[in-house]
Amino acid sequence: MITRELVIRDYNKLKKLAEKAFLNGKITDCLDYVSFLSFLMYNFNIIYADDEIENLLRNISKKYLCKNVKLDRKTVLFYDWWGWETRGLTNIYLNALVKNNYKIIFVTQLRNKNACGWIEKLFFGTESKVIYISNFKNYIENLKELQEIYYEYVPATAFMHTYPSDVVGVLFFHIIKSVKFQINLTDHAFWIGTKCFDYCIEFRDFGYNISLNERHIEEKRLKVLPYYPVITDYKVSDDFEYLMKKIGRFVFSGGSVYKINGSDFFYNFVKDLLLEYKDLSFVFIGNGDIEKINEYFRRCSLQERVFCFSERDDFVEFFKRCEFYLDTFPINGALMTQYAVVNGAIPVSFNFSDKQYCTDSDISGLFLQYSDDLKLSFDNIDEAKREIGLLLSDKSFKSQKKQNIKSLVISKKVFNESTLELIESKNTQFKCNLRKLNLKEFSEIYMDSVNKDSSLYYLIFVRARRLKVYMHFFINTIKGLFNYHNIKKIGKKICKFHF
User: Fold this and answer.
1) What is the average per-residue pLDDT within 451-473?
2) Where are the alpha helices (DSSP H) in 329-411?
3) d(CA 147, CA 348)
């Protein structure tokens, strides 16, 4: 059984190895250990920050500090791990910066070149440019490469949109003299870098409160800017209309499959809906172990009314045609719930106070001017089912509700204006509510999920691909390798599907 104590023990062992390597002048080894320990904790969220690791990274960075140079206030460096067009927040920030006439230096690894064509198209006809740096293999050489870019373009402002274990990005933001903004994309998880930026941009109450109380980031460094979902041009699949005829009336849900694991609630709730409403189907589009959903409904003899897909370019069309959008649980969705609202799909979400299900990540903090009167989030199953009954049977009720939710998501215009305000005045008009969070119960969701297949924990160590980790965690590695023959089958479900 995988326990909190086991994870903490392995984490602390990695931390001691990192500290020892630093003292012995083995910086690459040190950064290897820091990268892996942050990756490990990111999968369990028992803690959300570690001051000792942050101080270690800051001490490493001191040797490479950039000298003072005159900075160009109209140049913005945007450091990005992925280059995604429709996932993450890269798209909306780059569009806002272009709209506000900044010269953007977009920096990402060469491995992302195929994904970044949309950025090069966005920058066409402007002074902005995409720069591809070497894929991360030698941390210090990669850092020096980034340093050269900084000296060439002297950006007065820098944004970081990155992966939770990115040691190179954190070191880079430690050494540059720009005004530095961290876009807190994975606000629900552990990440390194709490001391490398000037301001942390939060998008909802949940992440804001974790940053304030668990990461111990000073309130004056926390800034709030909600986001809007990006809808890009897409081609409706040739099979879409055929699917609609086959599926009929349906409830839609989606996102990362790990968000519905750790509890049987979501599966059982959908099953009850399908049993109660015989003309209803269920559609799920997302990433991860989709087959697990299919297996459950085969056992329930409901497989003919359940349709699961990996990510589809035309997923927006399913929002437009569904009866309502069922939010994931025990971990609520953020971006998918916003997609629902902007496409007129009424979300039904859960926020139980019962400890068995409590996550404290309800959707209220995602939206502007949200009030409980809107009844999108429920802490009572019977009340949620009554709401669903009305959505399925009362057209005027459903129509009015669609009207009520239209203004919940920030507009592109307001986001663009707020990004300019953030850069110029280091502030925005938005605020978050202070809340007490039940984070122990939240982390148990991940623990419960991995204990349904404990080999996943050991495969995390195999995934390290670092000989030094294999040597110091020999038993963990052997246990992982013992299950390696299954890696193609379960590879997509390793490590919470956060990639």
Assistant:
1) 81
2) 335-342, 381-393, 395-404
3) 47
Q: Which of 438, 251, 259, 231 is nearest to 333 (CA)?
A: 259
Does residue 296 contact residue 231 with C-beta atoms inside 8 Å? no
The two three-digit tokens of residue 493, written as one number: 């479900």
Contacts of 154 by beta carbon, 8 Å cutoff, 6+ apart? 69, 70, 71, 72, 75
Shortest CA distance to 88 belongs to which of 192, 185, 190?
185
Contacts of 12 (CB under 8 A, 6+ apart): none
Element (H, E) at 187: none
pTM over 0.70: yes
3-state SS, one letter per residue, for 17-75 = HHHHHHHCCCHHHHHHHHHHHHHHHHCCCCCCCCHHHHHHHHHHHHHHCCCCCCCEEEE
Q: Which of 7-11, 230-234, 249-253, 295-299 is predicted least confidently?
A: 230-234
Task: Give 105's DSSP letter.
Answer: E
Phi and psi for 255 in degrees, rounded to 5? 125, -160
Q: How far apart are CA 46 and CA 33, in angstroms?
A: 18
Percent of all residues in the chain with a pLDDT value above 90, rounded to a whole number? 72
Which CB contacts under 8 angstroms, 24+ apart, belong to 242-245?
A: 243/307, 244/321
Write the CA distances from 212 to 4, 179, 269, integer angstroms: 23, 20, 34
